[in-house]
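User: Predict the structure for this protein chain, please.
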Amino acid sequence: MDFAQQQRNPGRHLTSIGIVLLMHLLLGYALVSGLARKVVEVIKQPIETKIIEEVKKPPPPPENLPPPPKSAPPPPSFVPPPEVVVQAPPQNAPTITVTQVRPVEQVVRVAPPAPPAPPAPPARVAPMLNFNACEKPEYTTAARRAETQGTVVVTYTMELDGRITDASVERSSGPTREHKQLDRATLDAVKACKGRPGMVDGKPERLSGRVEYVWKLVD
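Assistant: Here is the predicted structure, written as structure tokens:
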């Protein structure tokens, strides 16, 4: 709102005039009633003043003063020391103890000699009978017809020249008559065969041996 618009508003002028009149009325009332005089009297009352004395500080001690002399303590009273009587222990004459040491008897036990080792058994090599180099036994007619088969074990004694001087059936090829025929044929073939004699410590020796012969039909 500018100044021209404020001039055109009469309400604001009336309010300002009313405030000014009210202030004049209050001031006139105060003068008439003596209120102004009381205010002046209050202002004119005497003012009391008090003088506060300054607290004086003690003067500072002078500098570089020598220290007060120290009094020496009184000397202690002399107390004589107590007399101590020390008794020396009685000295006994040294005693010499003699201990007799018996000589140590050294007992040396000699172990009995070990028994001689038993002689090593002689190295034996059994005689060998090779049926491939001898005449083989043949099936009998009855044994072939009965289709008899089995294994015969024969023991024998061989001489130094390889001949068989003694032979016997140790185990039969079977229980039947045909098996007995095969045992007999095997025994005869062993006696008719010659082989390599046995050896004892590398030397030929008359020794015994055993041989197995298998009877088996071949188609």
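DSSP finds five helices and six strands in the chain.
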